[in-house]
Amino acid sequence: MALVKWQPFRELGTLRRQMDRLFDDLLQEHDWMSWPGDGATWMPAIEMEETEQHLILKAQIPGMKPEDLDVQVSREALSIAGEHRQEVCSEEGGVVRSEFHYGKFHRTVPLPVAIQQDQVTAEFKDGILQLTMPKATDATRNVVRVELPKS
Fold it and tell me: What are the tens digits of pLDDT across the range 81-102?
């Protein structure tokens, strides 16, 4: 009888491939990833742009009305909250499948610089909320050279 050297990493690779196959089959059969469960949360996607004088934040909030949103700002952070309500369906044609996210959401975004919160302007068009936030006058970025000690 010949002795065969045991290779533990080969066994781990085999186990990993079997687990990958198991999860691939499970996800394909049940497609459960696209069905939000009770604990599913949704937050609006954002883009933030910084200019010399402003921070401009865009939040993607499709299907919402401005009156369903609550936007609050401080010098250091921005908070967007709201509720996406589900429309009542008729008795004739019920929903067969829905991948829409309903319910309350809340997102707080820390700001990279202080802003003048009393000067923030908002625009809401085609499901995109755009907030233009002027930087606080003491928050404009200045580059300062730091002198290092000589050796």
Answer: 988 777 766 556 666 777 777 7
pTM: 0.61
Query: pLDDT tens across 105-128, in order?
Result: 899 999 999 988 888 999 999 999
63-96 per-residue burial string, b: 16 or more CB within 10 A, e: under 16: ebeeeebebebeeeebebebebeeeeeeeeeeee
Whole-number CA gyration radius for the chain? 26
**For residue 6, what is the DSSP state?**
-
| Distance of alpha carbon 61 from alpha carbon 36, whole angstroms | 18
Neighbouring C-alpha atoms within 13 Å toward the C-beta of 65: 4
| CATH class given for the domain over 37-88+100-139 | mainly beta
d(CA 82, CA 61): 10
Which residues contact residue 108 at a Cβ distance below 8 angstroms, ignoring those fewer than 6 apart? 77, 78, 79
What pLDDT shows up at residue 34? 41
Domain ranges of the chain: 7-36, 37-88+100-139
Partners of residue 45 on adjacent β-strands: 60
pLDDT greater at residue 23 or residue 36: 23
